[in-house]
Amino acid sequence: MVISHSSSGVGESAYNTFSSRYARVELPRYRMPENSIPKEAAYQMITDELMLDGNPRLDLASFVTTWMEPECDKLIMDSINKNYVDMDEYPVTTELQNRCVNMIAHLFNAPINEDEKAIGVSTVGSSEAIMLAGLAFKRKWANQRKELGKPYDKPNIVTGANVQVCWEKFARYFEVELKEVKLTEGYYVMDPLKAVEMVDENTICVAAILGSTLTGEYEDVKLLNSLLVEKNNETGWNVPIHVDAASGGFIAPFLHPELEWDFRLPLVKSINVSGHKYGLVYPGVGWVVWRSKDDLPEELIFHINYLGTDQPTFTLNFSKGASQIIAQYYQMIRLGFEDTSTSWRIARQMQPC
Ligand SMILES: *Cc1c(COP(=O)(O)O)cnc(C)c1O
């Protein structure tokens, strides 16, 4: 049995934290304190220290959602203690994730029949989604090279120099050379012509951004697709496209439905989107969907069975919270296509420029 001593003396009121000894000493910084303190004091002291943080509602820096409806806040608090990975314990949560994956895949025009299941997963954000998509491309490319008896030790990826830092992270962590198309004066996104020029037999994919981090501008994925189709035909290569739709994935289908950037283009094999940006959920949730089963090499899927039945997973992490996934489902069914479209149209009108 563990015996712990609270340092609060008997009879010391926990409600007047500011006149108590807890307000007189600095909160511990480097070592865990020997004794406990009353919960009210811990709450008050931490809350006060956090006042020096910025106000999330005024934070426009990372395009991340900072407000949700109280009903959804309640759903989130109700599920804050659910571990997403335990699919046997929480099968309904898994089902809600799968519904989101299917809705997003349909939103991005994945070529799946009504009764077919889409291929994709929830992630902590677009960064994890991009790591997973990148790994799938790298493995698929290596497998093709092995079959041809060719070396597979120098993979590269072609992007614009405007890519978000997570692509550089992917390249460094997973040992893929990042070939960046330089930006030019007055043109701040990837030039598809130059990108396709940089493609070679070791290119695992070209990554286009829908909603460049620097300016929000969409890259011309349609032109990239047609140029790359030509190049693949000439060379016999099989270089695919990934679309980093972290910010644009939940905007373009509603505001620019005619714009072809998604699975309507045959070389687009995977797409990521951040649920916590314009998916309107608090951080952190993201999504990655693949065009078809063939685009996600089977050997990357881990089958876990020690929580019960066989569970296929493809994630970098094991445990994570379930509440953001539930919140994403809430936003999907609460707003629907029409209200989301209307919201973005109104938001666009309110833009100052
Ligand atoms: C925000 C962003 C990312 C990273 O996404 P997280 O969800 O923050 O991990 C990647 N690419 C682009 C284009 C982004 O805007």
TrEMBL record:
Gene Ontology BP, a term: L-glutamate catabolic process
Signal peptide positions (record): none
Residues bearing PTM N6-(pyridoxal phosphate)lysine: 277
E.C. number(s) listed in UniProt: 4.1.1.15
Highest taxon of the lineage: Eukaryota
Keywords, in A-Z order: Decarboxylase, Lyase, Pyridoxal phosphate
Keyword Lipid metabolism belongs to the record: no
Catalytic activity reported: L-glutamate + H(+) = 4-aminobutanoate + CO2
One GO cellular component term: cytosol
Gene3D superfamilies, alphabetized: 4.10.280.50, Type I PLP-dependent aspartate aminotransferase-like (Major domain)
Cofactor: pyridoxal 5'-phosphate
A GO term, aspect molecular function: glutamate decarboxylase activity
InterPro entries the record matches: Glutamate_decarboxylase, PyrdxlP-dep_de-COase, PyrdxlP-dep_Trfase, PyrdxlP-dep_Trfase_major
Transmembrane segments: none
Group of enzyme by EC: lyase
Record-linked SUPFAM superfamilies: PLP-dependent transferases
NCBIfam families to which the protein is assigned, alphabetical: Glu-decarb-GAD
Family: Belongs to the group II decarboxylase family.
Name listed for the protein in its UniProt record: Glutamate decarboxylase
